[in-house]
Specification:
The complex is a heterodimer of chains A (396) and B (113).
Chain A lengths: L2 H20 L2 H22 L5 H19 L4 H11 L16 H12 L6 H12 L4 H7 L4 H18 L11 H20 L3 H17 L4 H14 L2 H4 L19 H17 L4 H14 L8 H14 L3 H15 L1 H9 L7 H13 L3 H14 L3 H12 L1
Helix pairs in contact in A: 1-2, 1-3, 1-5, 2-3, 3-4, 5-6, 6-9, 7-8, 9-10, 9-11, 10-11, 11-13, 11-14, 13-14, 14-15, 15-16, 16-17, 17-18, 18-19, 19-20
Chain B lengths: L1 E10 L5 H21 L2 E6 L7 E5 L5 E5 L7 E11 L2 H14 L4 E6 L2
Antiparallel strand pairs in B: 1-5, 1-6, 2-5, 3-4
Helix pairs in contact in B: 1-2
Classes of the chains: A mainly alpha (396), B alpha+beta (113).
């Protein structure tokens, strides 16, 4: 048995339940960590309990009572301990039933972590810490921040949740759409953060996406986000060469795409289409599904891709979406049609704007302008893999 | 129930009378609603910062009296509401109403200890 694996899988669940029962995130985390310490000590000898999750939650709750008692000089905490003791029995036989309301608990915790009163970066870090079970050091490394800085940021966030009274509940119907889109944005940000070089973060985002889909199966955008992430992640094996160089979609070996992820993603996209309540994530997922279904760039249904981009422009018009649409137009109607569309966009600061322009100019035989555009793209690109790719394109 | 301070920050100078009239009327109506909901604790529109006096005691307990606001700033505390609410979401709902009335001005929501 791998306690570490169980830790990763059950941490968020256990913390979520404990937050509900003890009402304080810091105490919940400490108690769950205590429970895991005890698991590491006892499981190898006693064997795995019938319900590891239930065992952890029961043990954590008992540890929380111990901690509250130790600090019971403070009257308020003593009251809390008494309340916990009178909570439903903590005998081993009820371990399984401990898991009952867990689903709702995790959903509550996600909405707490992604509350708009917290800064976006803090929401991401809290979600990874409390629901993903990543350590503070891991999160610090992922976002290139010194460990103590990240630790301080998390402590400050937990204090704000406690002192400002950020609630631990799923928002009312009236607030739900706006709040849910905030949660989805956090999960998608974690995914894109991992896109180039952190497959572990992308995997974590997909895990969170699955959790949301399980908890909110009636929200089409939740399914859309999961589909989008799966379809995009399915191409990871083909996206880099063995030496880590980026490979463009047109040049990827499609046999290396992950067919399991594609199948799951496409099934989700079809389920979304049946619901017919399109939103930005679902439409982006549908665009990815068209690519996934095509044996090659040439055989891609570009008319369908453009139609989907038109739909995306209607619900979420951004210059980047317009740029991606222009790329599809170039494939369907040629670079001469696409170039004016690209030129009309105000995206000078965006490196991919210049690389798309460069590609179109080159296809139109305007070599020196193409070179100038690639150089501009290179000057604005920050990521090493992207810079290497642009250098190779420039030298072609 | 927790208590929250909703502070309205406004730039120097007085707004045109017709704006001020509307804002005062709407804030008054909002306070009536807060009272009816049991959320209202206290509120106070303030005179401008030029009317402020600052006191500071030194180690010898001599209290220095200084004319003017503590911080010279482009935006200052113009008024506040103290409310009670179950949690931040409920406080933010009232805050949102207030922010809509004083459109463009910042409303800060801060919990009491």
């Amino acid at each position: 048995m791998n306690v570490e694996e169980i830790f990763r899988r059950e941490y968020g669940r256990a913390v979520a339940v404990l937050v509900r029962t003890v009402g304080d995130i810091g105490l919940a985390e400490e108690s769950v960590q205590d429970a895991f310490v005890e698991a590491v000590r006892r499981w190898p000898e006693d064997g795995l309990p019938p319900s590891p999750a239930g065992w952890l939650i029961t043990t954590a709750r008992n540890r929380a009572v111990d901690r509250l008692r130790r600090e019971s000089t403070r009257e308020e905490r003593h009251q809390q301990a008494l309340l916990l003791l009178s909570a439903p029995s903590t005998a081993p036989s009820t371990e399984r039933s401990e898991e009952g309301p867990v689903r709702d608990d995790r959903l509550r915790l996600i909405f707490t972590c992604c509350h708009p009163a917290l800064a976006l970066g803090v929401r991401v870090a809290l979600t990874l810490r409390l629901l993903g079970g990543l350590t503070t050091a891991e999160i610090a490394r992922a976002f290139l921040v010194p460990g103590p800085t990240m630790a301080q940021r998390l402590v400050r966030a937990k204090n704000k949740i406690r002192d400002a009274g950020i609630p631990y509940r799923v928002p009312d119907d009236a607030d739900l759409p706006a709040r849910l889109s905030g949660v989805l944005a956090v999960v998608y940000l974690i995914f894109t953060e991992g896109h180039l070089h952190r497959p572990d973060l992308s995997a974590e985002a997909i895990r969170l996406g699955r959790l949301l889909a399980e908890l909110m199966p009636d929200e089409p955008e939740v399914l859309g986000l999961l589909a989008l992430m799966l379809l995009s992640e399915s191409r990871r094996p083909a996206r880099n060469t063995e030496t880590g160089e980026l490979v463009l979609l047109a040049d990827q070996d499609r046999a290396r795409w992950n067919q399991t992820m594609i199948a799951e993603g496409q099934t989700l996209v079809r389920a979304c289409l049946r619901r017919d309540q399109p939103g930005p994530y679902q439409i982006q997922a549908a665009i990815n599904a068209v690519h996934s279904a095509a044996p090659s760039t040439v055989e891609t249904d570009w008319a369908q891709v453009i139609a989907l981009y038109d739909q995306l422009m209607a619900v979420a018009p951004t210059p980047v979406v317009a740029l991606n649409r222009a790329v599809a137009v170039a494939e369907l109607s040629g670079p001469a049609e696409a170039l004016p569309l690209v030129d009309s966009l105000d995206l000078d600061r965006y490196h991919l704007y210049h690389s798309v322009r460069a590609n179109l100019l080159r296809r139109l035989g305007r070599a020196s302008e193409a070179t100038a555009a690639y150089e501009k793209a290179l000057a604005k690109a920050a990521n090493t893999a992207e810079r290497n790719l642009l250098r190779r394109l420039l030298d072609l | 129930m927790k208590q929250y301070l909703l502070s309205i920050y406004q730039p120097e100078g007085t707004p045109p009378p017709e704006v001020l009239d509307r804002v005062m009327k709407e804030i008054d109506a909002l306070q009536q609603e807060m009272r009816a909901a049991g959320a209202w604790v206290f509120s106070g529109p303030l005179h401008p910062p030029s009317t402020a006096t600052v006191l500071r005691a030194n180690d010898q307990d001599d209290v220095l009296v200084i004319d003017g606001p503590f911080v010279e700033a482009k935006e200052f505390l113009g008024g506040f509401e103290i409310i009670q609410a179950a949690d931040l979401d409920e406080a933010l709902d009232w805050g949102r109403r207030l922010a809509t009335i004083v459109k463009g001005l910042a409303v800060e929501v801060r919990p009491f200890q």
